[in-house]
Amino acid sequence: MRIAVCLSELKPEPWVDGLRRALPGAEVRAWTPGAPPVDHAVVWMPPQQLLDEQPQLRGLFNIGAGVDALTRLRLPPRTQLVRLEDGGMAVQMAEYVCHALIRHFREFDVYEADAREGRWSYRKPRERGDFAVGVMGLGVLGERVARAVAQFDFPVNGWSRSGKAIDGVRGFVGDDGFDAFLSASRVLVNLLPLTEATRGILNRRNLSLLHGGQPGGYLINVARGGHLMEAELMPLLDGGQLAGATLDVFEVEPLPPAHAFWRHPKITVTPHGSARTERETSIAQIAGKIRALERGEPIGGVVDHNRGY
Question: What is the spatial distance between Cα 218 and Cα 275, in angstroms, rounded to a whole number?
């Protein structure tokens, strides 16, 4: 069994060494142009050249949960594209979202600003029931986030294309349930995959539906920058329709130093760090899936090319 590792902007050696330990007897090497044929490839943002040179690939394993960069490439017809189903990211994502949510709900951002000015201030407690949280996208990460938020006694809504039942989460399904989901949610958490159907979904029209169309909605985007229409967010914040936003992903990354998001008082920016792939956990998951494929067994995380996830 032969495996190639191709990781743009990352050192392949730790992954090569880890896969060799996890798959004794397999031939694992870092990919170079013109390399001999392999059975599987472990990748992050690979060039088209890799796929063109390896038409026999059976498995293409992405080391992240999002596969939008790969679905834009031309894949060999018999290659299965496989995404990480967790890789240690779910708990990190739940931490991040709960932190952003509670910081906004408890107005810790206001306390921080007052502390910088040496002001001893008091904010009247707000009711959790008034801050329904809508989780958009209920895959492995979205489900973990929804369950974590529910532990803090916030009302939780969940929306997905196909529908998913989660204890303690009010479910909304498909296009027919989308507007009702937004209207029922005051805080919107985006965990959708980026596809042609979801690009630009965080736009003026949809964000204006939050909180039943009343002012005070809040956005947490931890999926992809392409979901957000950036130019349409600012007027909603400046006009008071949205109370604020926590943004971890952007259309252009790194976010340019001159970008207005850095300086907007209602926006919290973080550098695409809401959930990082944990290498050893991911290697164990990928190795297990490769072994299953070699035995002819079905595996989870296989991407449906028609849906894009």
Answer: 20
CA neighbor of 149 nearest in space, from 168, 130, 125, 121:
168
Can you name the residues that pair with 170 across neighbouring β-strands? 157
Instruction: Give 3-state DSSP helix, strand, coil % of the chain, rounded to 5.
Output: 35, 20, 45
Both tokens of 278, joined, read: 């944990």
Q: Could you report the per-residue pLDDT of 10-50, keeping only the tens digit for each? A: 899 999 999 999 999 999 999 999 999 999 999 999 999 99
Gap between the Cα atoms of 188 and 150, Å rounded: 14
Residue of 29, 103, 170, 272 with catalytic role = 272
Active site residue 123: no
pTM, 2 dp? 0.89
DSSP 39: S
Contacts of 47 (CB under 8 A, 6+ apart): 6, 8
272 an active-site residue? yes
Token pair 């956005």 is found at: 219
